[in-house]
Amino acid sequence: MACYEDERQPVDQPEAFLMRTALNLSIDAHRLNVSHGEHVLAEHEVLIDAAPSTEAVVLARERTARLEVCLGRLPAKTRDVFLASRLDGLPYTEIAKLYGLNVSTVHAHVAKATLRLTTWMEGW
User: Fold this and answer.
1) Cα separation of 60 and 112, whole Å?
2) How far is the CA of 83 from the CAs of 13, 43, 75, 79, 123, in angstroms?
3) pLDDT tens-digit profile of 1-22?
4) Which fold has domain 71-122?
5) pLDDT averaged over the chain?
6) Please, which residues bridge with residue 4 across strands?
7) Cross-strand pairs, 9
8) What's the rounded Cα separation, in Å, for the pair 91 and 103?
9) Residue 3 β-bridge partners
10) How large is the average pLDDT for residues 36-61?
């Protein structure tokens, strides 16, 4: 059975022990290089690009343009109430006061706009 030299403790999982040792040595070497002001080459580092792909950007722009067209197809009051709720984040009570409506009418406008926009965007 393998034992850890410093403390004479048995190693139950030698592969895991070796992997952890290699990882710790790698981290120690990296810290040593950084603390001594040595340059780390970019090809030795793993860089993750979190930016969306070109395809995702183009698709998002197309969907936004389609949504603008769909919003333009809504009746003016329904569109205004919907945008006040979803874009501006206003509560229904405030929207009702702003447009001189009751809360249930605001709810109806938002539901109508949501249903129509979802239907129009679904086919795209």
Assistant:
1) 24
2) 60, 47, 12, 6, 22
3) 455 555 566 767 777 767 777 7
4) Arc Repressor Mutant, subunit A (1.10.10)
5) 82
6) 9
7) 4
8) 10
9) 10
10) 70
What are the domain boundaries of the chain?
3-39, 71-122
Residues 81, 114 contacting (CB under 8 angstroms): no
Look up the pTM and report it. Answer: 0.57
Please report which residue ranges of the chain form alpha helices under DSSP H: 14-35, 54-73, 76-86, 92-99, 103-122
Measured CA to CA in angstroms, residue 5 lies from 2, 90, 109 at distances of: 9, 66, 74
Angstrom distance (rounded) from CA 113 to CA 71: 8
Other CB atoms within a 10 A radius of the CB of residue 76 amount to 8
- pLDDT for 12 equals 73
